[in-house]
Amino acid sequence: MIVAGIDIGSRAAKAVVLNDGSIISSVICDTGPESVKTSYRTIEAALNGTGLSLDDIQYSVATGYGRVLVPFANENVSEISCHARGINWYSSSVRTILDMGGQDCKAINCDANGRVTNFIMNDKCAGGTGRFLEMIAEVLNIPLEEIGDLALESKTAIPFNTICAVFAKSEAISFLRQGVAKRDILAGLNEAIATRCLNLLRRISLEKEFSITGGIAKNKGMVAKLKEAVGLEPLLAEDPQIIGALGAALFAEERCKGIGTREELKVHYGYTDGTGDYFITIDTARCDGCGECVPACPSGIFEMVGDDNGQPKAKVKEAVRKKLAFLCPGFHSCSRNHEVNCHSVCQQDAISHTW
Amino acid sequence: MKALGIDVGSLTTKAVILDDDGILASSIVSSGDEAELSAKAALEQTLNQAGLSFDDNLYIISTGVGGKSISFSQQQKALTTCLARGSHYLFPSVRMTIEMGAESSTIIKVNERGRLSDWANQDKCAAGSGIFLQQMAKLMEMSLADMAQLSFKAKSKADISSTCAVFAESEVISHVHRDPPTPREEIVAGIYFSVVSRIMSLCKRVGIEKDVAVTGGVALNSGLVRILEEEIGFGVMVPDIPQIAAALGAALVARENIEKGIK
C-alpha cells in the first residue's frame, strides 16, 4: 500500500512516501511563491527514483500552512496533529514536542497514540523562527547549515537584549563591528531563542519525554542551548524536519486501512429516543469555518467555535443538544418550509441530519 | 554659561543650545556605534552654528539610549523627563506627548507645570517603530516623503498585521504581487495604520488626554500623523523639528540647573 504525506511549510515543503508502513522516500524542497506548483514539484521529487508515479499513491494527506493548496491530496490535516503522529512513529514515549518551523514555533503535548492533548503556538512574531536564523546567517555571512556547528564552538555567549528579529539583526551588526566573534553572537542568539521556547513549553505541560521537530532541530547549537534551558535531553528523530510530512503519511495510511477513517473527524450531536435517531453530524474535515450556517438555520442552533487547532468550526450549541428534535424539524421538513437552511448554504456539504 | 542638551538616539543624535531667548542652535547627526563620538559630532556642529567652541563655559545634559555613556556631560537625565520639559516648552497646553523614535516609542503625560506624571514605553519589538517604516520605504522603493504624499490619496487601507515587522514585510510583498496588485497608496496607508495601531495600544495604557503633541523622527511622516489623528479623534500638534524635542528638554533642564547653581 503506497501512501504519501506532504507538508507545505512557509519556508520548506516536505514529502514522505510510505509503502506498507515503511518510509521509501522522503524529500525537502524550498517553498516557492505558488503553493500548487510547489506541491507538485515536491511530490515528484519524492517519487523520483522509486519507479512510482502520482497515480500509484492510494491516498495522500496534506498538512502545513499551504495544505489547502495541494490539488492531489485526498485530505487536509493540521500540522499540529501531524507532528504529534509523526514523532509517535519514532518513539511512542514522547509527550512534549517543540516544533520550530520557518515562521512559527509550537509547543505540543501528545498521548501514547500520538494524539494531540494540548498545544500552544507563536506565529505572531518572527523572533526565534527559522526566518530569524536565516536573517542572522546572512548578516554574519555564514551558510545557514553551518551556524549550528559554529555556535557550538563558543565559550562565552554574548547576551542579547531583544528577541525581535529586526533589532537583534542590528545588535548583531554592531557586535560584529566591535569585533565580537561570530560564534559568540550565534550562541547568544540561540540562548535568547531557547529562553523564549522554554516560556512557550511552560505554558503546556513539559514532560520528560521531550522532542524537537522542524528545520531548526537540525541546528546543533540551538539544540544544545535548548537542552541547557529546558534541562532535558531531547529525543531527536533521524530527520526532524520531515516529521510533519511523515505524520501526514501515517494519517493517509490509516485512512486507507479504514481505521480512524474520516468518520472519526465527524462529530455527532444529538440523541436517540423512543421515536428515532436525532443526530446532526458535522464533518470537521470538510467544514471550512465559513460561518454561513449560523445565520442560515431558522432555529439558530449552530455556533462557530475554534477547534483544538484554533480553526473555526461549526458546532451545535451546547444548550440545544439535548432538545435537538424540538428545535430542528429535521432536514426534509426544514427544506420544505425554508429555502435557506444549513444544507443549502454549506458549500462543503459538511452538515447532515439523521432525520 | 550656555545650556546644552544632547539626545543620543539609536539612529540619530540630536543637540540643542539654549540661551535666555530660546534655541540658539540645533543639529541632528546620525548615530554611529559609539555614543561618545556621535555626541561629540553633534555637539561640534551645534557649537559651530552658534559661533561657540568646546572651551566656552558649557553645561551639558545628555539623554536617550546612549546618553549614559557620554563622558563630557555634567548630568544624565531620563528621556521621559527631558521629553516632558521639551514638549511643555514647545506647547504649554500639552498633556500628552507621543515620541516615535527609530527603535522605540514612548508616551508621556505631563501636568500643567510641565512635569512628568505617567509614561509607557515600547522598545522590545520593531513593529510600529521608525526602523520599520524605513524598511517598508526601502521595500516599496520610495522615499519616506513620497510615501507620506501618496498615502493622502488612499481611499481604503491594505490589511497589514501590526504584530511583527518581519512578517509585515512578507504581507507587503504579497500585496505588491497580488493579481491585481493592491494600489500602492492603500499599501502605504496599511503600513501607517499598523504603526498607528501599535501606538494607540500604548496610548491607551496611560489614557489619552488632550492636548497631544507628536515628536520624534516618525512625526515627520505627515501621512502617518493624519491617520493617527483619525484614530485618536482630534488634531495633534507637531513641532517644526520634531526630532529635537528631547534634546531641547535636556537643554532646558541644563538651563534650570545653571540658574539654580547646581553643578
Walk me through the topology.
The complex is a heterodimer of chains A (355) and B (263).
Chain A: E1 2-8, E2 12-19, E3 22-30, H1 35-47, E4 59-63, E5 75-76, H2 79-90, E6 96-100, E7 105-110, E8 116-122, H3 130-140, H4 147-152, H5 165-177, H6 182-203, E9 210-213, H7 220-230, H8 243-257, E10 266-273, E11 276-283, H9 293-296, E12 302-306, E13 312-316, H10 324-327, H11 331-337, H12 342-345, E14 351-353
Parallel strand pairs in A: 1-4, 4-5, 6-9
Antiparallel strand pairs in A: 1-2, 2-3, 6-7, 7-8, 10-11, 11-14, 12-13
Chain B: E1 2-8, E2 12-19, E3 22-30, H1 35-50, E4 58-63, E5 75-76, H2 79-90, E6 96-100, E7 105-110, E8 116-122, H3 130-139, H4 144-151, H5 165-177, H6 184-206, E9 212-215, H7 222-232, H8 245-260
Parallel strand pairs in B: 1-4, 4-5, 6-9
Antiparallel strand pairs in B: 1-2, 2-3, 6-7, 7-8
Helix pairs in contact in B: 2-8, 3-5, 4-6, 6-7
Short description:
The complex is a heterodimer of chains A (355) and B (263). With 355 residues, chain A is an alpha+beta fold.
Description:
The complex is a heterodimer of chains A (355) and B (263). Chain A is α+β, with helices and mostly antiparallel strands and 355 residues long. Helices cover 34% and strands 23% of the residues of chain A. Chain A contains twelve helices and 14 strands. Chain A has a five-stranded mixed sheet with strand order 3-2-1-4-5. Chain A has a four-stranded mixed sheet with strand order 8-7-6-9. A three-stranded antiparallel sheet of chain A has the order 10-11-14, with no helix packed on it. In chain A, strand 10 (266-273) and strand 11 form a beta hairpin. Chain A is elongated and about 80 Å long. Chain B has 263 residues and is α/β, with parallel strands linked by helices. Chain B folds into two domains: 1-91 and 243-263, Nucleotidyltransferase, domain 5 (2-Layer Sandwich), CATH 3.30.420.40; 93-238, Nucleotidyltransferase, domain 5. Helices cover 41% and strands 21% of the residues of chain B. Chain B is built from eight helices and nine strands. Chain B has helices spanning 35-50, 79-90, 130-139, 144-151, 165-177, 184-206, 222-232, 245-260, and strands at 2-8, 12-19, 22-30, 58-63, 75-76, 96-100, 105-110, 116-122, 212-215. Chain B has a five-stranded mixed sheet with strand order 3-2-1-4-5. Chain B has a four-stranded mixed sheet with strand order 8-7-6-9. In chain B, helix 2 crosses helix 8. The longest helix of chain B is centred in the C-terminal third of the chain and has 23 residues, at 184-206. The mean pLDDT of chain B is 90. The A-B interface holds A 33, 103, 124-127, 131-132, 135, 162-167, 170, 174, 177-178 and B 33, 103, 124-126, 129, 131-132, 135, 161, 163-167, 177.
